[in-house]
Amino acid sequence: MVLFLSRKDVESVLTMKEAIDAVEKGFREHGLATVNVPLRSAIRVDKHKGSVLFMPAYIEGMAALGVKVVSVYSDNPSKYNLPTTQGIVLLSDPKSGAVVAIMDGAFLTAMRTGAASGLATKYLAKKDAKTVGLIGTGVQGRTQIAGVCEVRAIEKVKAYDIIADRCSSFCKEIRKELEVDVVPVNSPELAVKGSDIVATSSTSKTPVLRGEWLDEGAHVNAIGSHSPDARELDATAIKRAKVVVDSRDAALKEAGDIIIPISEGIISPDHIYAELGEIITGKKAGRESANEITIFKSQGLAIQDVSTASRVYEIAAKKGVGKVLDL
After folding, report:
1. How many alpha carbons fall within 13 Å on the CB side of residue 267?
2. Rounded to the nearest 10 degrees, how much is the dihedral formed by the CA atoms of 107, 126, 287, 302?
3. Closest CA to 160 of 215, 216, 232, 219
4. Could you give the angle at the alpha carbon of 37 between the alpha carbons of 96 and 111, nearest 5°?
5. What domains can be seen in the chain, in order of their start residue?
6. Is 68 among the catalytic positions?
7. Active-site residue, selected from the candidate residues 68, 122, 126, 297
8. pLDDT score of 84
9. pTM for the model
């Protein structure tokens, strides 16, 4: 028997607080090397400006085993009135390998990505951080703000998007949902300057954030780009910062934000300070001074999906949410 969970089902049980807790446990296990998480496989569909990713993981300490299949198509909103990101998660019993749950992965992906940024913010941003600059106000932008607001007492968000109407609507909705002052700004520079925390969640292949815009002590969550030829941050931003990644292997294979400055001779691979799991487990220090600039470069790991899906399944089963199917 398999529990089927629609997007509405997942939305009904998964809060940002639960997502951050689950993702933190997943990253802790990653830091302790008790996970099996192969690098994701990707199929590029260049003709339609898309890619499909296959992301499996086994988290031994959480008894969580699963795989996510997710697609990212940048033209979906404008051409087909569909989300940029779509996906599905299969969760299995690690004892038998039997599939125990099938659930929508689009909302889960947005939530676990926001949760990872919230988690990075918890360990890397200044404790008194109050202002956030956001570049990119799509679905991912929404959960980026939610994740940060869960771990810091945020008072103001400055949001920028290349589509002004979308940005305006976003600000109104987030202001109501999170009870935070959210205002649109006319440029990425205005979003970044004066912000304690910056989140980049764009689909741009070229830098939308320049390092000279960052104030001392700023923390950046960079989650939008995930291919070797694309980056949201310029080389100056990377060079100025203590850089933390979710996975060194993934970053050096997929993160253009890091790969491109390395190829230009501006930094070396050793410029990556730590993986997030190393900081959570205390193997490496997080923020060490009020003035240092920190960057969390996230590629997105299957441990985030599987840890979050495991929590969703646990809560849904207890509450009787979803439909039981006999496959």
Report:
1. 22
2. 0
3. 232
4. 95
5. 2-109+303-325 (3.30.1780.10), 116-300 (3.40.50.720)
6. yes
7. 68
8. 84
9. 0.93
